[in-house]
Amino acid sequence: MSTNAAAAKNPIDGAFRRFRFMAFWAGVMSLLLWFVDLPIKWWVHNDSLHSHLVWIPIVHGFTYPIYVLAAFHYCLKSRKSFTATIFFLLAGTLPIASFVAENRAAKEYRARRDNKSA
Predict the structure, then answer these.
(1) 38 by DSSP, 3-state: which?
(2) Tens digits of per-residue pLDDT, 38-96?
């Protein structure tokens, strides 16, 4: 079976994969921002060192909207409630929350897949 045929069969697959990738990406970027960039900027006061890390908030800022779109698309495809959708959208703002949201989505995705195959 081709990839396109499988995606047409279960439209949530693509949305889940995109969300999963962006959740990991947003989580890693949040960890770098909160625990590398900001402490060096505010506590170390080493402009030379901080100039090497200026890419972290820039990349985080440009990719967070992509995470929001991926999370919203996944929530629409999986028919999440309004509250769950807000949780998934805001999960990219805290360092660990996107990993928690991805873990929850993966459990739900596996349960849905197992129920359909049974």
Answers:
(1) helix
(2) 888 888 888 888 888 899 999 999 999 999 999 999 999 999 999 999 999 999 888 89
Long-range CB contact pairs, 76-82, < 8 A, 24+:
76/15, 77/11, 77/12, 77/15, 77/16, 78/12, 78/15, 78/16, 78/105, 78/108, 78/109, 78/112
Show the tokens assigned to 52.
């090497």
Q: In 1-79, which ranges are continuous DSSP H helix? A: 3-9, 12-32, 38-39, 47-51, 55-77
Q: What are the tokens at 89?
A: 């959208």
**Number of helices and strands (H, E) in the chain?**
7, 0
Q: What is the pTM of this model?
A: 0.82
Q: Are 105 and 16 in contact (CB under 8 A)?
A: yes
- 72 Cβ contact list (under 8 Å, min separation 6): 85, 88, 89
CA distance 116 to 98: 27
Measured distance CA(81)–CA(43) in Å, rounded:
41
